[in-house]
Design a protein that fits this description.
The mean pLDDT is 96. The radius of gyration is 21 Å and the shape is globular. By secondary structure, it is α/β, with parallel strands linked by helices. α1 packs across α12. The chain folds into 2 domains: 120 residues, Rossmann fold, CATH 3.40.50.720; 191 residues, NAD(P)-binding Rossmann-like Domain (Rossmann fold), CATH 3.40.50.720. α10 links the parallel β10 and β11. A 7-stranded parallel sheet has the order 8-7-6-9-10-11-12, sandwiched between helices. Strands 2-1-3-4-5 form a 5-stranded parallel sheet.
Length: 330
């Protein structure tokens, strides 16, 4: 099967080629993102392979359908960038990678927590400049702190087990309680109670209409003063302008982000020689208690290998039987 792979980086090609070596699909790699302007590149391909920032809305899908595309294979778990009902209407199947490495994302969330708490990123820069003073680097013990986990799927469950190892008290919120999270010692509580009681809040929920701006001004008003907030899920879970106000008034004492609501124009690109045009993001970077990474939580060898393997398996199953293994339906 001929597959047009969009948003290609060198590491994508490395892992997809390795996964495809014994399968034999014809993978053609395109560096640009999939948009209405680049969709015609898919002419003559049966499938397109896309990532989180590719645009797969109705106008793009209509172009793909005219070009003969019958499968959209996401090399990601989230599919909020795909108009799934439109795809079904146009006869295009959609599939994803539902689980690749929950450890990668959960461990990155913990890395953000530790760095913010002990200011390791700031200490690293100080020592390199010959400054060995400890003023401004005071942290706190994680042991005994209350950690609120919003979203307790595979990633949230791994995160719960790690934080239990630190001796934290765990609170959880999810419409579907997870026995593994309960076994780790967590107590499920209403979201308002979690916000009010937690010293650290970690977001591991998917982005849906119900979770859009889950952390808004009303939610922030319920939180402890000086709370630590960490998001490694989707940027749209947070109202960024409300969070900036909460940073300014001290409601948020620490903020760790691996995702950002308007990241499409920023992340995965080298913009070091350009002036940032996003004033909201630029404002975030001015706070000394904010740590931002550029959507790298998933970025481990183990996760990339599994993503590539599952993506190739999805495409192979579609080629054999007309339906991918991990199909997304409306």
């Amino acid at each position: 099967m001929r597959v047009a792979v969009f948003s290609t980086k060198p590491y994508d090609r490395t892992f997809l080629d390795a996964a495809n070596a014994d399968v034999g699909h014809e993978l053609v790699f395109f560096e640009p993102r999939l948009t209405t302007e680049t969709a015609p590149l898919a002419e003559g391909f049966t499938a397109v392979c896309v990532f989180v920032h590719d645009v797969v809305d109705r106008p793009v899908l209509e172009v793909l359908a005219r070009e003969g595309v019958r499968l959209v294979a996401l090399r990601a778990a989230g599919f909020n960038n795909v108009d799934v009902p439109a795809a079904q209407e146009l006869g295009i199947a959609v599939c994803r990678v539902p689980a690749y490495s929950p450890y990668a994302v959960a461990e990155h969330a913990v890395a953000l927590i530790l760095a913010l708490d002990r200011r390791t990123h700031r200490a690293f820069n100080r020592v390199r400049e010959g400054n060995f003073a400890l003023d401004g680097l005071l942290g706190f013990d994680l042991h005994g702190r209350t950690v609120g986990i919003v979203g307790t799927g595979r990633i949230g469950a791994v995160f719960a087990r790690i934080m239990a190892g630190f001796g934290c008290r765990l609170l959880a919120s999810d419409p579907f309680p997870n026995d593994d999270v309960i076994a780790a010692g967590a107590t499920y509580v209403p979201l308002d109670e979690l916000f009010a009681a937690s010293d650290i809040i970690a977001l591991h929920a998917p982005l849906t209409p119900d979770t859009y701006h889950l952390v808004d001004r009303n939610a922030l008003a319920r939180m402890k003063r000086g709370v630590m907030l960490v998001n490694t899920s989707r940027g749209g879970l947070i109202d960024t302008e409300a969070v900036i106000e909460a940073l300014k008034d001290g409601t948020i004492g620490y903020l760790g982000l691996d995702v950002y609501e308007e990241e499409d124009a920023l992340f995965f690109e080298d913009l070091s020689q350009e002036i940032l045009q996003d004033d909201v993001f630029a404002r975030l970077l001015t706070f000394p208690n904010v740590l931002v990474t550029a959507h790298q939580a998933f970025f481990t060898e183990d996760a990339l290998r599994r993503i590539a393997q599952t993506t190739v398996e999805n495409i192979a199953e579609f080629a054999r039987h007309g339906r991918p293994t991990h199909e997304v339906t409306a």
